């Protein structure tokens, strides 16, 4: 165990006395169920059990071994799914092997969470004791919940199965809770964010649990002596219920609880052949995997896969500042990315060649049990995505201009000049120290009038956030009536890029306030030699292909035409932006989840936005 020996004497956050008490309880349950089993076995002919055991044919042993292997393969994949949900970054092969060894030993030795946590701690090179114990607890709890649903579904599908009414209630409650978890926001506990499993994870856990338990039941059924096995439809419900009794008892291998429950639920089955099959099954399904798990444990951690690919070269976009609001991060694969329950969303264009960045984003999404998605990507990136088989949907247009060539006297800017004349009394400043309290009052009033701020791919006001931006303030006398903020970046050509982010104004602001503030920024950008100034994107609102964006913004009360008119007043160039996902169904899912992330962004993190974008970088 090396360096891990000196870890704190706690497992999964529990003191050793609690673990010891659980061990004593398990021992008491073992003795209780063994006593019950002994009373049941008083009338059983042991010689008949031995004779039935001897009649198990070689092909039955081989078939049971094959089903045991299938069951433990599902167990290993179960761990992989939990790792993906936790975004642990563990190698799937190493995680699966550790999961199989942990289950093989813990189901035989008992104290599943504790034993499994220690085994995973030993076999996962980068996991600490807390992470391994938390993983074991999640595996145990999720498996128990999935077992309940699989068992309930089995009872309902088999007409002669017992407890069908109870099974219907369990199934309805279980799927109801699953649906609620899909719609529920993440839980925030101090500095931790606990995400609910998404639909892909829940579906995978249910499928793997069904494969695991049905293969285990099939192995026991096949070990019944020829000619004396009950019909599978009669045997399977009893097996699943007995398996649950063993799980809940916490005894090693569920010993006693499993046998007593199985015999009680199958009163018509000949006891000697059934007990002989259980004895053979315990050898195949418990003893042999435990020996193999012990060998893996003695061998120690497997050599991890080669390290992740190095970070891609290239400066991040100016909008990388959004990562300081906590919902987005800069990935080493070259993306400014955000996560929704079912998506890993690459925003804008990658700051690396799309031919390199896109396959890595796809791989990262798969490693998190999410779908890859691109949002507001440009035409070149959209073409690369189409080559990968992605479906595309135009969702917005970015308005941008070259400050070096901007001339206010152009005929196309006549409307802008009219707006500016209405704001001639506006005083514009860019102070070294921002009046954050006054800015917050303006921002709060603006948000109240519009039902709140948008988030995810859009900035929200936060004092720690705006102090890292380029800010222009508009004053009517001594009263602050509006402000705009810009992201700053080196730009793709190295000439610099500014991107409009926040626009906030008071209800009493003169008409033309925002236009005057943006014009001042354009003038400063030209003087600074900046090659590109973006007025950000305006969602599309025309054409039948734009109905998802149009509907989402209409429900949110966003005036699309007004936003586009404001940007069009500067006579910018317009570039189309796209939503891209692996299929049309994924496009629909992406539209729903991204719209929800934008219009219901949740609370900002307590630290606001103090970390620079580089600190948000993750692999």
TrEMBL record:
Which GO molecular function terms does the record list? Answer: aminoacyltransferase activity
**Chain ranges passing through the membrane:** 16-37, 57-78, 99-123, 135-159, 166-184, 204-223, 235-255, 275-297
User: Could you tell me where this protein is found in the cell?
Assistant: Cell membrane
Q: Which domain of life is it from?
A: Bacteria
A Pfam family assignment: LPG_synthase_C
Q: Which InterPro entries match?
A: Acyl_CoA_acyltransferase, LPG_synthase_C, PG_lysyltransferase
One GO term under biological process is:
phospholipid homeostasis
A Gene Ontology cellular component where this protein is annotated is:
plasma membrane
Give the membrane topology, semicolon-separated if more than one: Multi-pass membrane protein
* Keywords, comma-separated and alphabetical: Cell membrane, Membrane, Transmembrane, Transmembrane helix
Query: Which segments constitute the Phosphatidylglycerol lysyltransferase C-terminal domain?
Result: 342-580
Task: Give the main localization category.
Answer: membrane
UniProt name for this protein: Phosphatidylglycerol lysyltransferase C-terminal domain-containing protein
């Amino acid at each position: 165990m090396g360096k891990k020996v000196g870890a704190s004497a706690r497992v999964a956050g529990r003191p050793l006395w609690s673990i010891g008490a659980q061990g004593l309880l398990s021992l008491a349950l073992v003795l209780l169920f063994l006593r019950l089993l002994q009373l049941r076995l008083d009338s059983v002919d042991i010689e008949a059990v031995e004779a039935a055991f001897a009649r198990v044919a070689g092909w039955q042993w081989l078939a049971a071994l094959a089903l045991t292997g299938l069951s433990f393969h599902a167990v290993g994949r179960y761990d992989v799914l939990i790792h993906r949900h936790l975004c642990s970054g563990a190698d799937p092969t190493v995680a699966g092997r550790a999961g199989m060894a942990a289950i093989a030993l813990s189901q035989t030795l008992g104290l599943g969470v504790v034993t499994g946590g220690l085994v995973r701690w030993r076999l996962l090179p980068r996991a600490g004791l807390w992470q391994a114990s938390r993983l074991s607890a999640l595996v145990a709890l999720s498996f128990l919940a999935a077992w309940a649903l699989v068992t309930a579904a089995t009872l309902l599908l088999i007409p002669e199965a017992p407890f069908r009414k109870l099974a219907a209630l369990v199934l309805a409650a279980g799927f109801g809770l699953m649906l609620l978890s899909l719609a529920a926001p993440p839980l925030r506990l101090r500095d931790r964010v606990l995400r609910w499993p998404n639909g892909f994870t829940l579906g995978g856990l249910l499928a793997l649990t069904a494969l695991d338990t049905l293969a285990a039941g099939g192995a026991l059924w096949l070990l019944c002596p020829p000619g004396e096995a009950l019909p599978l439809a009669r045997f399977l419900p009893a097996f699943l219920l007995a398996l649950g009794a063993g799980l809940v008892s916490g005894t090693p291998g569920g010993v006693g609880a499993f046998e007593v429950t199985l015999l009680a639920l199958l009163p018509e089955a000949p006891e000697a052949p059934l007990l002989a099959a259980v004895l053979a099954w315990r050898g195949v399904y418990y003893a042999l995997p435990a020996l193999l798990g012990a060998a893996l444990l003695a061998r120690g951690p497997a050599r991890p896969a080669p390290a992740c690919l190095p970070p891609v070269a290239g400066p991040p976009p100016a909008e990388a500042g959004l990562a300081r609001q906590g919902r987005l991060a800069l990935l080493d694969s070259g993306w400014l990315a955000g996560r929704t329950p079912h998506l890993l969303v690459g925003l804008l264009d990658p700051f690396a060649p799309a031919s390199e960045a896109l396959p890595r984003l796809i791989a990262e999404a798969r490693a998190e049990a999410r779908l890859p998605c691109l949002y507001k990507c440009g035409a070149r990136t959209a073409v690369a995505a189409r080559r990968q088989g992605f479906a595309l949907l135009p969702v917005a247009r970015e308005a941008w201009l070259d400050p070096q060539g901007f001339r206010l006297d152009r005929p196309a800017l006549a409307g802008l000049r009219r707006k500016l004349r209405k704001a001639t009394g506006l005083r514009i400043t860019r102070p070294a120290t921002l009046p954050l309290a006054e800015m917050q009052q303006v921002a709060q009033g603006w948000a109240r009038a519009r039902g709140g701020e948008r988030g995810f791919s859009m900035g929200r006001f936060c004092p720690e956030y705006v102090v890292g931006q380029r800010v222009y303030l508009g004053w009517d006398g001594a009263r602050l009536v509006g402000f705009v903020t810009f992201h700053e970046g080196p730009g793709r050509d190295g000439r610099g890029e500014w991107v409009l982010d926040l626009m906030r104004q008071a209800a009493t602001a003169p008409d033309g306030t925002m236009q005057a503030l943006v014009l001042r920024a354009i003038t400063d950008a030209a003087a600074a030699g900046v090659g590109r100034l973006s007025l950000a994107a305006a969602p599309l609102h025309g054409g039948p292909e734009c109905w998802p964006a149009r509907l989402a913004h209409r429900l949110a009360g966003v005036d699309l035409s007004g936003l586009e008119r404001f940007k069009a007043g500067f006579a910018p160039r317009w570039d189309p932006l796209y939503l891209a996902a692996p299929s049309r169904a994924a496009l629909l899912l992406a539209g729903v989840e991204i719209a929800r992330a934008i219009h219901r962004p949740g609370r900002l993190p307590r630290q606001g936005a103090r970390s620079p974008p580089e600190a948000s970088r993750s692999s």
